[in-house]
Amino acid sequence: MTAPSDRIRALLVENVHASAAERFSRAGIEVECVDRALDADELVKRLDGVQILGIRSRTHVTTEVLEQAPGLQAVGAFCIGTNQIDLPAATARGIAVFNAPFSNTRSVVELAVAEIIALTRRLTVQNDAMHAGQWRKSAKGSHELRGRTLGIVGYGKIGSQLSVLAEALGMRVQFFDTADRLALGNAQRCLSMDELLADADVVTLHVDGRPGNSSLFGEEEFARMKPGAIFLNLSRGFVVDHAALRRHIDSGRVAGAAVDVFPTEPAASGDPFESELRGLPNVILTPHIGGSTEEAQQDIGEFVAGKLLGYLSAGTTALSVNLPEVQLERSPGTSRLLLLHQNRPGALAHLNGVLGDGGLNIEQQILSTAGAVGYAVTDVNGEVPQSVIDVLCDMAETIRVETLPAA
Ligand SMILES: NC(=O)c1ccc[n+]([C@@H]2O[C@H](COP(=O)([O-])OP(=O)(O)OC[C@H]3O[C@@H](n4cnc5c(N)ncnc54)[C@H](O)[C@@H]3O)[C@@H](O)[C@H]2O)c1
Q: What is the CA radius of gyration of the chain?
């Protein structure tokens, strides 16, 4: 591995936010930026001599691409998902993959707050009537948020942050999560979703995309909501039965809804959009933009670039999507050896034996394993000679060996 000061090269495609290129440039890395997604052929050509690749969701990093990019050390997904990357293939080659799982949390929370206020005050219905030339001044069905109960299903990063903001607006917060989650502020934990549905004036889903959550919310759950309650889903499209939601909106039992995610979503901006929820003035439909703000994009750029730089300069894999997580402060005056290896008995003993035979003293060392892969970070006194690196590369369990010069 080359330290950032040795002019390593990064390729950033799909208009990754400029904050990433700025961070790389400041670290002495040569950056090439491309404003569109690349197909496999062009990607392979451009990866020649590149150690760091930054993509968003539309560039696919397949086994074939990785096979033809021997110099590649790490891939940054400047987005949330990593489905576009063949993670097992990256792991098998010792290529670290990072993403930005937290950067758009606040953006999603703010959209939820905006929608809860808009639906509770019937803003979309009023707006629709005004644009149709109708003046309908009435307080009926409009409420203050203050004192109303928000029911949050899924109290993870987004759900818990929404809890804090909703309380600041004067709402009572209840939540249901299948995992043990610390209740923030005065939020109350419910022991079941039914308990939450019985009380909530607003129900909002923030569960993750595990397969068991398919059709989590359908006919029965809508029927258990308080009459006149409001429903939001900004989590995953497949968790909600939209036909059932339509029926409960049509019947008036659900007073309004906001939906940002859909079971099947158009592939590209500008594509047509079909849904049984279209044409309802009390339903806010948005094209999966919960996390899409300029602030989130900037944060993603800085966050993922920081992770990639941490990997290059210290071998840090904290929050890596595919490699065992290791973070070890550099020990002054030592050089660092990174060994990715098959997770087999004796791998660490082999490494340490080779270092001892090479006359290197281990100053500090850390090992972490995940599934079939182990990752050892070792600081040794003095530079690691090429002869030692060659022996390590030839060990049966070795996936990848990198060295970092003395800190
Ligand atoms: N609309 C958007 O643009 C957008 C942007 C970012 C994230 N998201 C989605 O929002 C969701 C939440 O994101 P997050 O970062 O808070 O995730 P997270 O993993 O931090 O939290 C999810 C929580 O849901 C809980 N959970 C899972 N299944 C449950 C169930 N059946 N009942 C109750 N609780 C359950 C989990 O225990 C966890 O606490 C994810 O699905 C994510 O993909 C959407």
A: 26
Instruction: Identify the residue whose tokens are 């997604």.
Output: 37
Q: Which residue has the tokens 């210290």?
A: 314
- Among 206, 285, 295, say which to mutate for ligand 1: greatest number of ligand atoms within 8 Å of CB: 206
Q: Is 146 a catalytic residue?
A: no
**What is the reported pTM?**
0.86
How do residues 162-184 score in pLDDT, each as one tens digit?
999 999 999 999 999 999 999 99
Task: Classify residue 74 as left (phi > 0), alpha (psi -120 to 50) or beta.
Answer: beta
Q: How far is CA 297 from the centre of its chain?
A: 12
Out of 42, 288, 302, 397, the active site residue is 288
32, 67, 265, 329: the catalytic one is 265
Give the pLDDT confidence score for residue 271 in this predicted structure.
92
Q: Ligand 1 pocket, 115 CB below 6 A?
A: no
Q: Give the pLDDT confidence of 343-359 residue by residue, as tens digits.
A: 999 999 999 999 999 99
Q: Which of 103, 235, 285 to mutate to test the pocket of ligand 1 (most atoms within 8 A of CB)?
A: 235
Of ligand 1's atoms, which has the minimum distance to the CA of residue 176?
A: 33
Query: Do 236 and 211 form a contact (C-beta atoms < 8 A)?
Result: no
- Which is it for strands 373-381 and 362-370: parallel, antiparallel or unpaired? antiparallel
Q: How far is the CA of 207 from the centre of ligand 1 (A)?
A: 3
Give the model's pLDDT for residue 268.
80
| Model confidence pLDDT, tens digit, residues 238-289 | 999 999 999 999 999 999 999 999 999 987 888 999 999 999 999 999 999 9
Q: Alpha helices of 252-397 — where are they, by DSSP H?
A: 294-314, 347-357, 386-394
Instruction: Please tell me the predicted confidence (pLDDT) of residue 6.
Output: 58
What is the C-alpha separation between 275 and 88, in angstroms, rounded? 35
Q: Would you say the CB of residue 110 lies under 6 angstroms from ligand 1?
A: no
Q: Does the beta carbon of 234 sit less than 6 angstroms from any atom of ligand 1? A: yes
The length of the chain, given as a count of residues: 407
- Among 276, 264, 339, 309, which residue's Cα sits nearest to residue 25? 309
Nearest to 57 by CA among 40, 90, 33, 79: 79
Q: How high is the pLDDT of residue 3?
A: 43
